[in-house]
Amino acid sequence: MEGSVHSLEFKIIDGGGQVAAVVERKRSSSGVELGEDVLCVTVEPHVDRIFIMALVAIHGLICGKM
């Protein structure tokens, strides 16, 4: 993981050093950040989306953000 993991905004990097997913706080159309546990997860093609979501959920629970 790379980035600000405490604010739940980070990148998940695969074994080859490529970005597998990007996790960001979701923002409204006017740019207002929604709740702490409202996230936008962008997963690259050919990456297991369920595995990425499990990593994000587990990380959020460990950090006490979810």
Keywords:
single chain, Tubby-like protein, alpha+beta, 66 residues, four-stranded antiparallel sheet, Tubby-like_C, LOR_sf, LOR
What is this structure's SSE topology?
Blueprint: E1 2-4, E2 9-13, E3 19-25, E4 39-43, H1 49-63
Count of spatially separate domains: 1
- Give average pLDDT, whole number: 86
Number of helices: 1
Shape: globular
Give the low-pLDDT segments: none
Strand order of the largest sheet: 1-2-3-4
Which structural class fits the helix and strand makeup? alpha+beta
The biggest beta sheet reads:
4 strands, antiparallel
What's the gist of this structure?
The chain is of the alpha+beta class. 23% of the residues lie in helices and 30% in strands. The chain is globular.
Question: Could you explain how this protein is built, in words?
Answer:
By secondary structure, the chain is α+β, with helices and mostly antiparallel strands. It has one domain (2-63). It has one helix at residues 49-63; strands at residues 2-4, 9-13, 19-25, 39-43. The two termini are 18 Å apart. Belongs to the LOR family.
